[in-house]
Amino acid sequence: IEPFCSGVYAGDPTKLSMKAAFGKIWVLEKEGGSLVGGALNLMKEKKDNPPPERDPRLPTPPKGQTVGSFRRGLQTLPNAIGRTLGDRVKVGWTLKDIDRSAGGYKLTYSTPEGAKFVRAKSVVFTTPSYVAAQLLRREIPDAHSQLNSFFYPPVGSVVLSYPKSAIRDEMFGPDGRVNAFGQLHPRTQGVTTLGTIYSSSLFPNRCPDGEFLLSSYIGGTLNQGILDQTEDELAAQVDGDLRRMLIKPDAPKPKTVGVRVWQKAIPQFYLGHMEALEAANEAAEEAGYEGMFLSGNYSSGVALGKCVEGAYKVADDVAEYCRELASMAAPATASGDSSEESFFV
Prior knowledge:
Elements: H1 2-9, H2 18-21, H3 23-32, H4 35-48, H5 76-85, E1 94-101, E2 104-111, E3 114-125, H6 129-135, H7 141-147, E4 155-163, E5 182-184, E6 193-197, H8 199-202, E7 211-219, H9 231-242, E8 255-262, H10 273-286, E9 292-294, H11 297-300, H12 304-326, E10 338-344
Parallel strand pairs: 3-9, 3-10
Antiparallel strand pairs: 1-2, 2-3, 4-7, 4-8, 5-6, 6-7
Helix pairs in contact: 3-4, 6-7, 7-10
């Protein structure tokens, strides 16, 4: 399980909570008595309760394809959402203060046009936990201490492009393609790269013909020293690791397409994580902060699908809260302030 922990969480498997970090696996073992028993139960359940039919509006994936993306990358989705919402999306606004007031919340923002104030009945925090912690440190100190306890290790993304001839011969299938998603690297291999995605094998038009694009990740809980390395050093480290397993040792030097380091990348779901999150929510409720919701990857899970599922859940929670408020007399909004049903931070 160590390569999986490193590849998904960039974490230390001795510290991660199975229930919090790998909930589906935990449920399989708990309900089936073992992973195999749980998997058999799951197969039977899916057979008895087949999933709904695929949305006909979605494009048909290539045969055998298990992942998808947009032609111009994942930024396509948030850009489209932004265009749809228009000026309701406020960019360049920095939340400076949040106050509980009659009928909801007053949010103070620093903007390019000066200070702005927003009144909302509900507020959803989708920031990293440490950002939410700082914003709540005065109003809800107990929530601040819990949210501030979550650890985010640094992770670097290194994207390299090699001539296709640099890939080891055994990696190619009968069709002349590298038909794989990528690879995870156990620490026992003596490499520091956490994992590598075969970008140009997954999606077309990711690199010129005759080249092979690889997206690798380095750093994590067990290698925080990447913060002291330059971009060139990180690219050289990844290149050296790849030559031990995927790239021919005598291959030419790759093109460095991009290197980026996130100083605080992925929240670690350590033992006690869910209890700490529950304590933060309870502290907010006890302080009278009804209608404030903590969301984001430290709450729902770090995978993109988990974040989407968590977003739907919090949207339902906000809608239910606003329906409850609608059944009661609500005080008028202060003059001069913009007003919203709910506001996402």
